[in-house]
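User: Predict the complex with 4'-deoxy-4'-aminopyridoxal-5'-phosphate.
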Amino acid sequence: MRTVYVNGHYLPESEATVSIFDRGFLMSDGVYEVTSVLDGKLIDFPGHTARLHRSLAEMDMAAPCSDDDLLAIHRELVMRNAIHDGLVYLQVTRGNPGDRDFAFPPADTPPTLVLFTQSKPGITQSPLAKTGMKVISIEDARWGRRDIKTVQLLYPSMGKMMAKKAGCDDAWMVEDGHVTEGTSNNAYIVVGNRIITRHLGNAILSGITRTAVLRFAREAQMEVEERPFTIAEAQAADEAFITSATMFVMPVVQIDGVAVGTGQPGSVVARLREIYLDESRRAAI
Ligand code: PMP
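Assistant: Here is the predicted structure with 4'-deoxy-4'-aminopyridoxal-5'-phosphate placed in the model:
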């Protein structure tokens, strides 16, 4: 049985509880982070902590504890659950005001802090990296502040089910004719030596993997263009891919039934994936 963390306590998962009045449960009033673990080490922990602080600030929420404490909890959970490859999930909510009310509770209401691990042996060897992913396009019907990593994940969850129903792996969301991102990842196309991905703003989450991959791409003398692109442009691209903390860099070989490039994972994406995994492992803590 897993050991999880709830508000200062390490507990067996069956004994971990949160109030029915918790704002996270009643209002999706919370933010989260997912940090990958490779070889028992955390991938880009400072990046995830920085984004957590940004999400908290945008939601007018205080940090539940210091970054040193957060790091210690992550490491303790990885150790106690003997995670070699997998992830640590962290969620902070606006806590339990003791009743239901739309207005935020007093600022001194203690936040709820929950962390747990998921073991994913061989996570870097996913068969999808060899075959590539198939995606469908769907309307982006999420709220307008996708730059905040909130736990209101109903629409992305529905999008994932729409993809599954269509025999595909994921959905790319489209707003005003342009791709925003995948249900739980950032979306890219490759044209020649150029990598194109939507610019940052309220429309997408600033992926920690996105930041790293764009940096590695520039260092490897690839061109990076941060701008919106259409599904038609993606279908006509040489290669396509997604990035996320748990998928790393993953090729996309089909969009709405149309093969991208050769219909097989391409060399640019394979190279980016290799660089990302190598560099991330090297910098892991
Ligand atoms: N966009 C969305 C909507 C996501 O949910 C995620 C994953 N949490 C990402 C992008 C990728 O972010 P990261 O690389 O930090 O995992």
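Residues 137 and 172 are 5 Å apart (CA to CA).
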